[in-house]
Amino acid sequence: MKKIIIIPLICLFAINYTNAQDLSSIYEKVSPAVVAIYTQENNIVTHPNNVSQTVTDNGLGSGFMVSDEYIITAAHVVNVPETLVVQFYDGETIDAKVVTSYKSADIALIKLVTPKKNATTVKFGDSNQLKIGQRVFVIGVPLGVGFSLSSGYVSGFKGQILGKNPFTNTEFIQTDAAINQGNSGGPMFNLNGEVVGVVSHITSKSGGSNGIGFASSSNLAAHLLLNNKMPWFGAELYSLSGKEAKLFNLPQTSGLLVQRIASNSLFDKMGVKKGDTEIIIGKKKLIIGGDIILSFNNITYDITDDALIKIAGFAKNLIDNPKFEMTVLREGQIITLKSK
């Protein structure tokens, strides 16, 4: 009887040891492709005396190299950065700029100002092949303590919205792998060393890693960032519709409130006005005082799929034809701005 008990225990130990060895060898192979991303952003804060002030916030996230120039990360890591610096596994740092970003999917593509020499890159795997219970691992810079690994399993899938409208497309993979602040934008790997997800966020009562982690699927990231690029306008926007549109006296049913703008971005060069005052509507914090976008090249902004698909088509065409006009509401007046 003792032999019957001991043999399974030995087999279980051997399996766990083999898995640990496999994970270690994969980590050594792919970890040099993972980067730390440091940002500085201007933000508006309101003091108790209702005076608003611009402050600089430091940000930290992770990312991974898909070429010697391009890095994928989470959209919220590189929202409206004034500075964007990438630190590599070997300690080297290189400045970067945002190329394209999708807020709903929480994915972004950034480009180094100079290519990384002897870059280690990773490839996407097929996230459609993932199954609940499959082993995955995450590499990043949690809490800024340095590059580290956490492993877990695919726990489920959430928020699958896939259609022709790229602005609302989402597809998230749920995992129990430990995810902390700083992990955002880092890669989720399968045991073949392929990226199957881009770490996005956690749902946690404490704000720590003892919650549920989510990563945007690799298939959606590859489709939107590598095969379906649109330019980054360099602004934090908020969609106004319904009662909110009426509160702002919009001449149409919907509009895009410009809250923050990154310096030297496309919108900044066009002369788009950013917000300067923080308010709360319901439970939402908004920065008001900036322009409200009404249309792009005579395409009226609206929250319907048809309108957003037309705007997405307009944005993609800017790569070949960067000249366009934009109608905005500014201090009660409708004005037209032109790209330069």
Please name the defining characteristics of this protein.
340 residues, alpha+beta, Pdz3 Domain, six-stranded antiparallel beta barrel, six-stranded antiparallel β-barrel, 5 helices, Peptidase_S1_PA, serine-type endopeptidase activity, signal, hydrolase, PDZ_sf
Please describe what this structure looks like.
The structure is a single chain. With 340 residues, the chain is α+β, with helices and mostly antiparallel strands. Among the domains are: 127-226, Thrombin, subunit H; 235-338, Pdz3 Domain, CATH 2.30.42.10. 18% of the residues lie in helices and 41% in strands. The protein is built from five helices and 20 strands. It has helices at 2-30, 218-226, 242-247, 266-270, 305-317; strands at residues 34-46, 52-65, 70-73, 83-87, 93-102, 107-112, 135-140, 148-161, 170-175, 187-189, 195-203, 212-217, 235-241, 254-261, 277-281, 284-288, 292-296, 299-300, 325-330, 333-338. The strands form four sheets. Strands 1-2-3-6-5-4 form a six-stranded antiparallel β-barrel. Strand 19 and strand 20 (333-338) form a beta hairpin. The protein is globular. The termini are far apart. The model is unreliable at 1-7 and 9-18 (pLDDT under 50). Residues 1-20 form the signal peptide. It comes from Flavivirga rizhaonensis. One of its GO terms (molecular function) is serine-type endopeptidase activity. This is Trypsin-like serine protease. It holds the Pfam family Trypsin_2.
